[in-house]
Amino acid sequence: MVEVRVAFTIDSLKLGGAERVLLQWARWCRQEGWKVLVVTRRASDFDAYPLPEGIERVVEPSLSVHLGWLGWFAFPWRVFALRQLLRRHRIDLAVGVTTLPAVKLLLATVGLSIRTVVSERNYPAAKHLSLPWRWLRRLTYPWADLHLIQTRKTGVWLRQHCAVHRQQLFPNSVTWPLPDREPVLEPDEFIAPSQPLILAAGTKADQKGFDRLMPVFADLGRRDPDLHLALLGLAPGNYHGLDQQTWLRQLLGHDSGLQERLLMPGVSGSMARWYARATVFVLPSRYEGFPNVLLEAMAAGCACIASDCLTGPSDLILHGENGLLMAPQATSNDWAVAIAGLLADPDQCLRLGEQASRVRERYDAACLRAEFLEALLQLCHG
């Protein structure tokens, strides 16, 4: 068995798809007998996931008070600190997950014999970066030995705008059955078994288009007094300066009945129970990479409706066969009509859900694990 020393870098282990994917990759490497290091900028206070057994976690050194005053201009110090950390642990290969950690990693490894891999987790054109970060991305991305891309459209964009040619298509995987973890939220504690449920999930309300669902639910909820809408994953309080739950409730309006049936219980580690309970799963995102939550919902056999944004949902859903795709310019009325159609047709929900569940085989974690490890080994011995 070949021992490889591999590091994964990301901002934090907060709740999110990128963080879960990184930990899955780290687990695969550890199962192969490699030494695995997870490097984050933020401390464990931000963690939403437990660290897999046998994996070491290191937090980048924090800035001194004086350096902290420099703001963006302290970035070279962060790069140097990461470089020293990687050298101290004698890393052979490093994987940067999401844009900013990837840029920092590529700068930190200049001149070192460390192979580098970059993984963008959203469609890059849809992510709003400041000019310095856009310039640094354009400068550094061609330096990576490999880019793991989730969709072909992302690969095309990176080739055209960042001169990235060393690419490998590598979508997210799904493990079935879906595991439970803390915190466990039981759907039956929030909604009666006989009541229909529209389910959506995500941590970023704007990206996931949850605001788009408010007029849709207002329309459908007034027609059916039993209908509920559950938005899972939104933590209470401010997220980047916005109280997402308060914002959405304001958009919904003052109807007390609707407000009671809009469920936002927060973060749930028991998503399989919610997928099983959902009548319809919806993903009205403005942009995506390769949506884990949609992949999971389909694996669970949900009848799914998703926005046909530039990348992601159309890689999973064949319209009318295993789910429904809504045009990016679809109106609230269009969404209401589509969702109402499924709510009124249990047979169609069952048919779409049965076809959707086939993603379990197509994106099986065991198959993708072998492909992932082979790609990394080729870099190490190439």
For this structure, what is the CATH class of the largest domain?
A: Alpha Beta
Shape: globular
* Residue windows where pLDDT falls under 50 for at least 5 positions: none
Helix content: 40-55%
- The rounded distance between the terminal residues' Cα atoms is 17 Å
Main β-sheet: number of strands, strand sense, barrel status? Answer: 7 strands, parallel
Strands of the largest sheet, in order across it? 3-2-1-4-5-6-7
CATH-assigned fold name of the largest domain = Rossmann fold
CATH architecture of the largest domain: 3-Layer(aba) Sandwich
Total number of helices: 16
The count of domains is: 2
The helix/strand class is alpha/beta
Offer a quick outline of the entry.
With 382 residues, the chain is α/β, with parallel strands linked by helices. It has helices at 17-31, 65-68, 75-88, 99-108, 131-140, 152-162, 210-223, 244-252, 256-261, 271-277, 292-299, 313-316, 332-343, 346-356, 359-362, 365-381, and strands spanning 5-10, 35-40, 56-59, 93-97, 115-119, 146-149, 167-169, 197-201, 228-232, 238-239, 242-243, 262-266, 280-283, 304-307, 324-326. The protein has 2 domains: 5-173 and 364-381, Rossmann fold (3-Layer(aba) Sandwich); 187-362, Rossmann fold.
